[in-house]
Design goal:
Layout: H1 4-15, H2 20-27, H3 31-38, H4 58-71, E1 72-76, E2 82-89, H5 93-106, E3 112-117, E4 120-127, H6 130-133, H7 151-159, H8 161-172, E5 173-182, E6 185-195, H9 199-212, E7 217-220, E8 223-226, H10 229-238
Antiparallel strand pairs: 1-2, 2-4, 3-4, 5-6, 6-8, 7-8
Length: 243
Amino acid sequence: MYDVTTRERTLALLTDGRSLNSVSRETGISRSAIRAWLTRIEPLPRIAERPCDRPRNGSAYAYLLGLYLGDGCISRHPRGGHHLRIACADAWPGLIAACREAITAVRPGDSVYTLQREGHVSVTSYGRHWTCLFPQHGPGKKHLRRIVLEPWQREFVDAHPWDFVRGLIHSDGCRIINWTTRNGKRYEYPRYFFTNLSADILGLFTGTLDALGVEWRYANARNVSIARKASVALMDAHIGPKY
């Protein structure tokens, strides 16, 4: 008998479009066992159906919402329920750990595991409430549909704005060191960037910055820059570079 986490991880590979043979080779689990799970001969324990609870950990939810809007997706499990997946670059192990901690804080009853992909880790959790916790889920890419927060989500963001901004920066943002020359001398200064194709998500980011007193400007149509010294200092105090 395999534990629930092993079965969930194996079935998640199939939902990513992998063949039964390749999943069997990678996991060492026989094709007959995997096929049995798919056909419910050996079903996963069912999660009790009940109304979707609001997150109890507001700061963790605001952070996870930022991660989801940047690099997250939700996909239907072939046997019911959904997978939440957040793509985290291999270069930032601290981000991977923070993402796992946030998912656990938001949904402590749901398992969390990682799937290695080329150049990144997919932090994954199976459950029956991810679509109501993130109602922005829908078909197609986020920048091709409207992204609007529900009133209850707005309350979480307003209560934990720095956690929301941190999630967005950790997903689609960065802190870099720029440099320039003046009178033959080189000067270096830090700045933050946030890049996203969705005008709605950019608006959520800049609107939250406005509420926090952080000055910003558009570097181009999809790129927000934060370069003024006082604003960078605020970002450093609450966000800092990825690690």
